[in-house]
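Lay summary. Proteins are chains of building blocks that fold into shapes, and those shapes determine what they do. In this project we predict the shape from the chain. Here is one chain we studied, written as its sequence of building blocks.
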Amino acid sequence: MTTLIDRLAAFTTATTAAELPDDVVAESQRILLDTLGCAVASLDDDGARRGVTFGRVLGAGNPEASVIGTGEKLSTIGAAFANAELVNALDQDAVLPPGHVTPYVVPAALAVAQARRLSGARLLEAIALSHEMSFRIGRCTDYLRDIVDGAVVIPKIIGYSSTIFGGTAAAAKLLDLDTETVADALGIAGSTAPVNAQRAWMMHAPATTIKYQLAGGMAVTELTAAHLAAEGHTGDRLILDDREYGFPRFIGTKRWEPAAIGDRLGEAWTFTPFQSFKPYPHCRVMHAIFDGLIEIVERHDLSPDEIEGITAWGESFVQQPTWVNETITNPRDAQFSMTHGLALAAHRIPPGKDWQTPEIVRDPSVLALTERSEFQPHPDHAAALAKDPAARASRVAVRARGQEFVAERAYPKGSPSSDPSTYMTDDELIAKFRHNVAGVVGDDDAAAVIDMVFHLAEVDDVAAILDRMAGR
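And here is the predicted shape, written in a compact code that computers can read:
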């Protein structure tokens, strides 16, 4: 019997940079650039620093791989943990169904590639296959935006544990494991994956500062699975085929449609049309609203003290404690509070790391406008989503100067859609990267990194990229 694990393992070892479609190459390079910038932007964040500190505990005495944006090197596993926490800290990392994929699959691969002095082409393979695999498995399970009887219904158990397979495959690929050993690594990963705790995170406000899934923990589990398989441990090859007792049961999904995992696997690449990038360091559910709000305040040159109130309409499922929370004590609270996010956007603070400084998060003007802001479900959200999974029906109204200024959006900036303007271009991604690394990575080094990443298959040694980012 050829199991799904066997097929994923064969896909892993068969993937080569030379055979990747152009759109997969381009998107994988864009993912890497964005990931590096997101990590550097988080260096001053308290939560991210806790991750770096624990990364040192995991391996400070074995300098193999860099903490991104610094000259510090840790063990592969230590650097992978630290970088995963850095990438996800400000919540501006790339997104792909089932949600956040990149911070769970790239850091382990990047650390292995640097430690082994592998080429950019090898890292390109790992990024591509990990996102493809994560997207395919995510499509099989319950999703945050599933529609039941015309309404968006959040599953009682949800999260990103399924990305463990993509991240493990990427690490195993770069460790040069053969197909049989990769299969064992994937089986081990499935048996040791973290629980899906995202729904508890949604419901318990103020929410835990480790957020919806500990990115560093995922990276450690991926490397553990790959190395244990390399040492001879065997994995559960049936873990994805067994609906009753296998991985679907572990993660609590009611929906399990595994045909999507193997459908033309290795022939058709499916993730790129769904890959999105975040202009704002805030939960993605608010981004289309932010686009409209910023347009209003800039077009009419509105100052925060002129604004009498803001009302926004958006995704219908986010009336959960973490999103409606207005007790803002740290940047993690701010990343998900809808009304606080509206206040931040109305202050015209440049999107990026500046949104998440403690001074801005607790700024009296921001907090005051938070109290004058409100969020309501958009009545057309579910219907629009049913027609187009990328749709995010959004409306925002600003009351100021005795008038009401209104903006509407069908899609958020950063996502491919029927509206070409929502796609985040290379130039826009580069601008985001430069803003995120400003003050840490010099202009010349940033330019060199951009050039290497956009020509990743020509880079002889991935370490050269990380060395140019050693700003601190």
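What the prediction tells us: Strands lie at 65-66, 73-74, 147-148, 151-152, 307-314, 373-377, 394-400, 403-409.
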